[in-house]
Write a structure and sequence with these properties.
alpha+beta, 4 strands, 2 domains, elongated
Length: about 350
């Protein structure tokens, strides 16, 4: 029960691992929304400040407008800085919440204390729903602003207006906390589902390696990822068809998984792909040729020890070339030569 409450409050009814997988996406969303909010707030409050000099009805609120404008301009600066300093994202988010709720508090208690509050209550319900964060953190922020409003109300209001405003602040505050928790849960679950679908679209379901889709999406980036050199290693399993025919597809799948694991251990999961039924491609960035060759020899030994065989070819380049396909074709050509040599020495039917 306690774990469920903790997961709901901290991770929107998911778990720590799932939440951290989508944390960057949430921060990107919040960063963009906070910047828009700060900009809009600056413009709107600036307009009201100008009106306070020409319209008598706005004049009494001029100090509030000045405060709101300065606060929102600071938030614009923080939002811009958060693009380079990600931790500032949450400072920007809670400044965006604060600029509206403190503005609503000031209007209700400093400029119109004799009237029942509407602006603060509306902002209390609406503003938190724009962002996405841990439910408990936003709930804490709302409780703080409600407390500030109530303290200010007791200092500036009296009679039935005070009673109604304090009661409304508590009721609307509870509703705001409940609604933001429900909405955040739905948004976080949506991000988690989107992340899982994205992972599924990039992952080979049999071996767990990156699949052909991921390979095609990532290929264009490789010319810009290395500093000195890049190697392409092309692997093609020998004897899959024969093994399927003699021992069944389960045995064939076991071979594919074993070889995928061997390649992944040598070159890392991030840069290893299953690009076909029995074909794998791996990239080694800024890795000396002799080290790549050593890894390939170790792969061959492990594969042979398990009673399997794979044709392996590799190609290396030092110069930066935006056409990564030349490197892949060179590695593939060497792989086909290795496969040809193997079948010259091992008759397919005997195999």
């Amino acid at each position: 029960m306690w774990n469920k409450i903790k997961n709901y409050a901290l991770y929107g009814d998911t778990d720590r691992e799932s939440f951290h997988c989508i944390k960057e996406k949430i921060e990107t969303h919040n960063r963009s929304i906070a910047a828009v909010f700060a900009s809009v707030a600056s413009v709107l409050i600036g307009i009201m400040l100008l009106l306070s000099f020409v319209e008598e009805g706005f004049a009494s609120s001029r100090p509030v407008y000045i405060f709101g404008l300065l606060f929102s301009l600071i938030q614009v600066a923080v939002s811009v800085a958060s693009r380079k300093v990600p931790p500032l994202t949450y400072v920007s988010v809670y400044m965006a919440v604060a600029v509206f709720l403190l503005y609503g508090t000031a209007i209700a208690t400093l400029t119109r204390p004799e009237e029942q509050t509407v602006t603060f209550m509306v902002l209390l319900i609406f503003v938190p729903l724009i962002f996405v964060d841990r439910p408990i953190r936003m709930a804490g922020s709302l409780i703080l602003h409600i407390a500030i409003f109530i303290v200010m109300a007791f200092r500036t209001k009296s009679g039935s207006v005070l009673s109604v405003d304090v009661t409304d602040a508590i009721i609307f505050g509870v509703l705001a906390i409940i609604s933001e928790t429900i909405v955040y849960r739905a948004k976080i679950h949506g991000y988690v589902l989107e992340h899982e679908l994205h992972i599924m679209s990039e992952t080979d379901q049999l071996t767990g390696l990156n699949n052909r889709n991921c390979y095609e999406w990532c290929l264009a980036a490789y010319p810009y990822l290395y500093k000195q050199s890049i190697c392409c290693i092309y692997v093609d399993v020998n004897g899959l068809h024969e093994l399927n025919n003699t021992k069944g597809h389960k045995a064939g799948d076991e071979m594919l998984c074993y070889i995928a694991d061997v390649v992944q251990k040598q070159f890392g999961k991030k840069d290893t792909y299953r690009v076909g039924g029995d074909e794998y491609v791996a990239f080694a960035l800024d890795c000396p040729v002799d080290v790549v060759e050593s890894k390939i020899e170790e792969m061959k030994a492990q594969i042979a020890e398990a009673g399997y065989h794979a044709a392996i070819g590799y190609a290396h380049q030092d110069a930066r070339d935006e056409d990564i396909n030349k490197l892949i074709v060179a590695a593939e050509s060497k792989m086909y030569q290795d496969k040809s040599d193997f079948y010259k020495a091992h008759d397919r039917r005997a195999r």
